[in-house]
Structures are given as C-alpha cells and as structure tokens.
Design a protein that fits this description.
Layout (H helix, E strand, L loop, with lengths): L2 H18 L4 H6 L6 E4 L1 H4 L5 H13 L9 E3 L5 E4 L5 E3 L6 H10 L3 E6 L16 H11 L3 E5 L9 H15 L4 E5 L17 E3 L8 H9 L13 E3 L12 H13 L4 E3 L8 H8 L1 H7 L8 E6 L2 E7 L5 E7 L5 E6 L8 E6 L4 E7 L1 E6 L4 E6 L1
Parallel strand pairs: 1-2, 1-10, 2-5, 5-6, 6-7, 7-8, 8-9
Antiparallel strand pairs: 3-4, 11-12, 12-13, 13-18, 14-17, 15-16, 15-18
Helix pairs in contact: 4-5, 6-7, 8-9, 9-10, 9-11
Amino acid sequence: MSTAHCCFSALFRVLTFFSWMGISVAQESVLAQRPPMGWNSWNHFECKVSDAIIRAQADAMVSSGMKAVGYRYVNIDDCWQGNRDPQGRIHANEKFSDMKALADYVHSKGLKLGIYSSPGPKTCAGYEGSYGHEEQDAQTYSSWGIDFLKYDLCSLEGKGDQIAAYRKMGEALKKAGRPVVYSLCQYGMEGVWSWGKSVGGNLWRTTDDIRDNYYIMAVFGFGQSGLEKFAGPGHWNDPDMLEIGNGGMDQDEYRTHMSLWCILAAPLIAGNDLTKMTPATLAILTNPEVVAVDQDPGGVQGHRVRQLGPLEVWMKPLADGSKVVGLFNLDWGPMPITVDLREIGADDSAAVRDLWARRNLGVFKGTFTATVPKHGVVMIRVK
Ligand code: GLA
C-alpha cells in the first residue's frame, strides 16, 4: 500500500468514526473558524435596506474583488421584518418579496446571507423581534437558507435575563439544524466575552455602536486590549462593523481602522456601499497582506505592547512564528515611533516588511523606527 493511500484510508476511518459518533466534522470545523468577513446594511443604509440593495451589494462583493480576498457574508440588518401570520410565523415586509429567493440568489454567487433579530418583542428600530418565537424564527431562517444571525438586545427589559435569552436562541439555531454563525449584539454588557461562547455565540459585540468618526472608532478599537484571552477560532470579540468608505475619516484614519481590526482578529464586516467604492476604499478593504493578518490560522487576537501618550505599539503573533506590529499615532501631527524587536518577541535581528506599502524594508538590528502620520499607522510583519 502506498503512503498516500495509507494516509487517505486512515483519514477516511477517522472521518467515518466522527460521523458515526454523530459529530459533523465539516460543520464544526468551519463555522467562524476564522473571523467572519462580509458586509452589513446598517452603517450605510440603516432602515433604507431592500431586496434590490442586498442583491446589488452581493453583485458588487463579487465584481469588486472582495469575494476573492475572503468576504462572504451579505447581512441584512434591522428593518426587514413584516408581521407574523396567525400561526406566528414571521414574514418579511414589502421591501423583501421573497427571502428564500434572495438567499438562493446570494448563494448562487458563492456568498452567504445573514439576517437580524432581537431577543425582545421589538428590535432596536421597533420592528418585530423574536421574543416567544425563538424556535419558530430559527426554523424560518433555516427554511429560507440564512447563514448568519445578528441578535441585538432591544426591548428585553422586564422580560428576563439576557444571558438566558441569548442561550435560548443559540439552542434554537442548533435545533433548527442549519449552520448559522451566531452574532451577539448587546454592547459588551455583563462581560459578554466570558459567557458568549457558552451560549453558542461565534462573535459578540464588545462596544456600543460605532460611528464613522475617528475618535469613536479609536475609543472602541484601542479599548480592546486585555480581551484577547477570550477570542479564538469559532468565537471572536467584535468591536463593531467597519466604517471604511463611508466618508467620515481620511485615508490614514481608515487604514488605522482596518489595521487595528486585523490585529484584533476582529470580524471584518464592511459597512459602506460596495456599489460605489473609490479605488482607495477598495484598496484598504482588500489589501491581501493586511486581510491575511486578520484571517491568520492561529486565530490569536493581538494586544497593546506599549503606550507612550498618543503613541501605541500593538502586536499580533502569527501561526508561522512571525509578528505583525502596528505602530499607531493618535497625535495631531507626524511622529516617529520606535519598536524594540525584543519587546515584540522577535529576534534581535529580523526582516521587516511594510504591509501597506507591500515591500520589504530590509533586516533591522535591535530596533525599528518609522515616522507615522497623524492618526495613521505603519503596519509591519517581522520575521
Ligand atoms: C443597534 C445595533 C446596530 C444596528 C441597530 C439596528 O443600535 O448596535 O448595529 O443593528 O441596532 O436598529
């Protein structure tokens, strides 16, 4: 028997054993194994979302090249819901004629469709929530072909414990049988990072709502250090969706947003209009070397190594042993930032590559220094 044949039969026997045990190997190993990448309607369209907009975003995700670098989920946020019928089944409102047909369309592009609900009777925008209908809604989503659920804490006051409510929907999704990435959105309350995984969550918001504003993005992003021990394959901290391309920050600020989210191994859920992207926006969202930092198979969330007033150094270790370092300048003018190679766990002499410029900078001994623009970043890979 050849070595290849021997290994193949051994693998086959292991897979057969797992399926005999009732364990779905493929399903368990791929659901949010890496931070989910995609797009969501809220940051740009808010309640103006419709079937036509979702189809156009799916089209643009493919034609822009975003799909090619890993973006997959096309997520409908709040405001899609209509009424429940006499049997209690939820229906979409007049802006979505046929959710199953929409899911089929998105799937036909090799993408996945996400949806939104709340554990309370009403969603944050006042639409029909899932309270008292959790199993029924999970089954409805499954029958439509939904792949991702953002479950947003609104109107649960006086209706019970939120952890129990999130567990209830987590169990309902499992019972419905279709693999659905479960995204908890309750702004980090009650230390969600310590219980989000136990209720079935694949990602959980750690912050209030992001805005297309440098200072709010910075408070959220730079405030994540310390939470790294709660993240890993299948379960991620979520400092909220991206604002890149929505117009409220300059290019250095958007590069800071993207760099920080990738060092944090955060979900990369774009929030701009993908049908109207400038080349600069697209370049920030799709730099393959930067996206690869987020999607590194090691699944380690980076952390702050050092802070000197408005100057911060962050590091994310990668599976191949190299370190990605973000040199961030939160100040109001360009500033030099120096990294001691030993403080990031690298050898005293190491090769440095600039990930935004996409070029090798050479071998450095002891320290590396770069001048970083106002509100900007230099992101390097050190090996
Ligand atoms: C909350 C969430 C947002 C969005 C809106 C929709 O504010 O944090 O991301 O989903 O609700 O109403």
